[in-house]
Amino acid sequence: MRKPETAPRRRRSRDLLVGAVGELLDAHEPDQITITDVVNHASVTRPTFYAIFPDLPSAFAEAALTRMADAFAGESVVDVPAAQRPEVMLGAITRILTRLEADAGFYARVVNGHGAHRVQTQAIAFLADELLTNTPVSRALRTGPLPAETSATALAAGVTWIGLRWLTSNPREPVGDMAVELRDLVLRTVVGGLGSPATRPAPDNTEAPQIQDHPETPESEGLT
């Protein structure tokens, strides 16, 4: 009975293929890479490739997502006192951006080649999940006025677009400056906004309440 080996073998093959795709993208444009190049570099067969990926763009997207996950590894900062959130988030974002910048050439190629839309879509989904589970704003997003996934996806889309634009720029803004910009974007979008408690709409015959510039909520303490 050899069926129990199928899953581990598939994982090994996937890891080999993703590693090969990443190494090829480090040196070549996506349109210069073929499936033959990938399987030869990974020392697997073409049927093995197609058993795991339907096409090259899917493999490119998986390689990009794997590197993103590596850059975010170990940066879960959920339970942080409000007063410490800006500093803690800035440190985490700075470290993540530093790791991403080390692979700037890789990301520039993958977001401008075949499957770029798939890469961006998966990057947004990945970041939305991170925002909902591993950041100081996770609880606020889950208790805000909109469905948590809607808020997280909207915020992740903006952060992803800004981050990819930064990564593919030459010259690019210093890591420290970009980290401050992204930290402030996340906090100021959530605190008093997407992370505010839901309220009932005002009756038709009454004036809608005015939005305060600095709502006095526990979450807003983290902005000072």
Automatic annotation (TrEMBL):
Q: Which InterPro entries match?
A: Homeodomain-like_sf
Organism superkingdom: Bacteria
Region entry Disordered, spans: 195-224
Q: From the Swiss-Prot or TrEMBL record, give the protein name.
A: TetR/AcrR family transcriptional regulator
Q: Which organism was this protein described from?
A: Gordonia desulfuricans
Mind giving the lineage of the organism this protein is from?
A: Bacteria, Bacillati, Actinomycetota, Actinomycetes, Mycobacteriales
